[in-house]
Amino acid sequence: MRKKITAIFILMFFVLTFDCEAISAQGYALVEVSTGRLILGNNTDKKLPMASTTKIMTGLLSCESGKLDSTFSIPEAAVKIEGASIYLVPGEKLTLRELTYGLLLESGNDAANAIAYILAGSIPNYAKMMNQRAAELGLINTSFSNPSGLDGKNHYTTALDLARLGAAAMKNKDFAAIVSTYKYQIPYNGIKNGRTLINHNELLNIYEGTIGIKTGYTKSSGRCLVTCAERNGIKLVAATLNGMDDFGDHISLQNYGFSKLKMHKLLTNPPDVYAAVAGGLSERVKCSYNADFQAPLTDEEISNLKMQIDMPRFAYAPVTKGQKMGEIVFELDNIVIAKTDLLADENVDYKVLSRFEKFTDFLKRRLLHMQ
Question: 30 and 174, same structural domain?
Fold first, then answer.
């Protein structure tokens, strides 16, 4: 009991004394994965070089390609690159999945180039794909000019964009499986298990709950890091750019997030919800829904949470039991935090109408549409 009380006291002391200036990174952001919302940050929109954290986007596109288990020959042009390498041999055959392990564990620049040539035919074409995907994800302060992270005038990101990229990537099952792996073997020029790949993310072994994702460093960028950790159903991504103590920074940021966020039941007093039905034997149908759903929130966020019921003014009969009638949606600052479907509890059959009833029903529908 004494140990438990001491641990709680230490956690409370950390929360009360958290010092943003103690974070060494020039820019940092901590986001909650399911929504991408910012929990903590500094210089979150400052454009900075990102080094090999670039490979998060390179790897995500690889995992989204649908070709992970296809085998490809390594183009000769791919191996002509400086920096980290998995020592690819021109002409050797590897699956795209094996290349992606080499990309994300050993940070192979040659693996990055090989993926680019395989999927896009050239480095510039792949950079266009990367920028297009960034735009789709709403990363408005990010620009890619290569797949590896080598310094470039038009190659930059922000801490917030990078954290949100990490959150999006971790929702891809193949990507998440790769970056959570510490050690993996792939062939070397036809020799089975000829390459042993070791993940550079040391937090996988030293910080409880770490499940990814990517390190990075150049002289220009300094140390860059993106990590993802999960505890008690809460998943967080932290991103730091140009930090002297990146692993220490991430431990502090993740500790802060887990101390502030807790899983909260959103419906403490579940309401009865009915959906209007037009042309049915009943004018409404009761809806069932998951009343036990939860979301990770801070105590401050709970008080600002807004609930709304989204459903059309009515549904036409017939209605089938289990049919989706609408949604209960919880929002925080216009961000959807959680939602659950409203499902019809029973069938509502179509009502056979007389000519007069059909006429009055037609008028009712016209009036409803005009309102």
Answer: yes
Q: What is the pLDDT of residues 41-57, one digit of tens each?
A: 999 999 999 999 999 99
Whether 107 is catalytic: yes
52 catalytic residue (yes or no): yes
**Would you say residue 10 lies in a domain?**
no
Please identify which of the residues 24, 34, 47, 52 carries the catalytic annotation. 52
Q: At what angle do helices 159-169 and 55-64 cross, to 10 degrees?
A: 30
Which residues have C-beta within 8 Å of that of residue 234, sequence separation ≥ 6? 32, 257, 258, 261, 262, 263, 296
Instruction: For residue range 62-113, list pLDDT tens digits in order.
Output: 999 999 999 999 999 999 899 999 999 999 999 999 999 999 999 999 999 9
Q: Which of 337, 347, 274, 349 is nearest to 306 (CA)?
A: 337
Do the domain assignments include residue 66? yes
Query: Which listed residue (3, 46, 55, 265) is catalytic?
Result: 55
Residues 358 and 225 in one domain: no
Which residue out of 62, 107, 148, 252 is catalytically annotated? 107
* Shared domain check, 213 and 119: yes
> Are residues 39 and 142 located together in one domain of the fold?
yes
Q: How far is CA 225 from CA 27, 238, 325, in A?
A: 11, 8, 44
Q: CATH no. for residue 28?
A: 3.40.710.10
Domain that residue 362 falls in: 273-370
Q: What's the CA gap between 86 and 82, in Å, rounded?
A: 12
- The yes-or-no answer on residue 192 being catalytic is no
